[in-house]
Amino acid sequence: METSTIYGEQAMNKPVMNKQHLRTLARLTFGNAASLIYLGVVLATAVFVAVDTLLVPHEDASFAGVWVFLLAAPTVFVFFVGSELWGADAAGPAWFIYLALVVSVLVQAFALGWFVRLVRGGGRSRTAHPQGV
To answer: Whole-model pTM?
Structure first.
């Protein structure tokens, strides 16, 4: 079996996600203080909303659930706009709303981790380079 590197043919046969990519993805999403604090705030808010919804009697509707959407903004609204473009109702099935919230929170935790890595200069070589090189 011959492997050819002409025009990047060998790169096309590599798997898209390997263990190193998954580790990096997990590290950026869960492995830094900013992402963990964000995920903790979202989890605490979700617990508050669940307790408020299930255990506290209200004469009117509670707006506690709005806090989860505010913490998941703006990416959760991208899901809602996308569902509208596909012809689905944004306030449709509950599973879609929960899935949109979970994916939005994970995307934002990843973005926070990536931003922290960017600010700290991660991924670059730490050696000094002459100016202009």
So the answer is: 0.70
